[in-house]
Amino acid sequence: MANIQYYDVILKPVVTEKSMALMADKKYTFLVHPEVTKNQVKEAVEKMFPGTKVKKVNTMNMSGKTKRRGMTYGKTAKTKKAIVQLTAESADIEIFEGL
C-alpha cells in the first residue's frame, strides 16, 4: 500500500438527496481513496475539519458500472465511499453549510 497522507484520503463530498437527509443525524458522505482504512478516514476528517469528533465510520466499495459507446463495452473506475458519523457535541462540517 502506498504512503497515503491525510489530505489524500478524502477526494470529494457526495451531494445527493440521501446524503443531505443523513446530515440531520450528523452523518456526512465522502468519496475516499480506494485503499484507505476506517481509521485513516477518521484521522483525516478530524485533521481537515477542526472541532469535529468522529464517532463511527462506515465504508463501502462501489464497483464500476458497465458503460457502452456504440458496440464497445467498458467499465468505469471503482470507487470507495465513506459515511462519517460525528458525535453529538462535535462541530458541523463547514463545506456542507448552505446546501
User: Order of strands across the biggest sheet?
Assistant: 1-2-6-3
Quaternary structure: single chain
Helix content: 10-25%
User: In angstroms, what is the radius of gyration?
Assistant: 15 Å
Unreliable segments of 5+ consecutive residues: none
Mean pLDDT: 92
Write down the overall geometry: globular
What structural class do helix, strand and pairing data support? alpha+beta
Order of helices and strands: HEHEHEEEE
How many helices in DSSP terms? 3
DSSP strand tally: 6
Span between termini? 35 Å
- Major pleated sheet: 4 strands, antiparallel
Attribute tags:
99 residues; alpha+beta; 4-stranded antiparallel sheet; 3 helices; globular
Write structural notes for this entry.
The structure is a single chain. This protein is α+β, with helices and mostly antiparallel strands and 99 residues long. It contains 3 helices and 6 strands; from the N terminus they run H-E-H-E-H-E-E-E-E. The protein has helices at residues 6-9, 17-22, 38-48, and strands at 10-13, 27-32, 54-62, 66-69, 72-75, 79-86. The strands form 2 sheets. Strands 1-2-6-3 form a 4-stranded antiparallel sheet. Strands 4-5 form a two-stranded antiparallel sheet.
Secondary structure topology:
Layout: H1 6-9, E1 10-13, H2 17-22, E2 27-32, H3 38-48, E3 54-62, E4 66-69, E5 72-75, E6 79-86
Antiparallel strand pairs: 1-2, 2-6, 3-6, 4-5
Brief rundown of the structure:
This protein is an alpha+beta fold.
